[in-house]
Amino acid sequence: MISLSEKEQRLVAYLQESVPLVKEPFALIGEKVGMTEEAVLQKLKEWLSSGIIRRFGGVVSHQQVGRRANAMSLWAVPPERIEEVAQLLSARPEVTHCYERECPKNWQYRLFAMIHASSENECRRIAQTIAQQTGINDYQLLFTVKEFKKTSLTII
Amino acid sequence: MNTVDKRLIDLLQAEFPLSSRPFQELGQALGLDEEGVIERVKRLKHSGVLRRIGAVFSPEKLGMVSTLVALKIPDQSHLDRVAEEINKYTEVTHNYQRAHPFNLWFTLTAPDETRLREIISEIRKNQAIEDLLEFPARRTFKIDARFLVSQL
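YS: structure for the whole thing
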């Protein structure tokens, strides 16, 4: 883990939660962590451009905005086609996450893509479309039965 | 949610203004005053649509390590209890029961490999678990958990 100054650690702790819903939220965060509003905004922009912060903004509950079904789709893709199939999956707005993963022996599904849609059938249709487009017919959809935990990363 | 709420949700996800008066700026785009925006945001948060407004950190860029773990728990009656034990770790961010012989899947993000191994070996001790597989990411192609609503 990279080293952060004490002030930076305090700032991270605030930014991983929610900004206070007041007129000047960054000034208030600054007050709490011992920085000026300007310094808070500066640090935020710096971390955004270095990629430490992937994005800054609203995080919504997908269930509450009409995406009630979600499936982890697993694709058996030969190594030389991973890139191409991953790009096709990633281009779809319903796919929120797409990774190639290290897998145990005898596990042929190296490509993982999270699909969020209005219904399980809609998830199936999206996967079928991808299968037709790529000719990759060996895939699995692991639907969510129960969400036990979903939180943002706690760094500090 | 009405049309203005939907546009606000999309704007909050697209780009939250990094300025002194972000809600005033959002209001200008929506034709609302600053207080009006803050009120709406509070309401959306209260109703559970909006989880938070904040930073989405990249664990790799912070030098943290993560993995995805799958557990096979043949006796379903033990599943809730195992899931509860796993949830106790703050390093576990997502934990889902899935329709598959490997029926519990969770993500783990730790400050270093030592801590990651420690947690996995602790979890592995649970007698209800028949098998445990790990799937660390090799290449990340997409991470974008934004859900636009105004076009729905």
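YS: worth flagging: The CA atoms of residues 2 and 90 of chain B lie 36 Å apart.
IM: good catch. Also The helical segments of chain B are 3-14, 22-30, 34-46, 79-87, 113-124.
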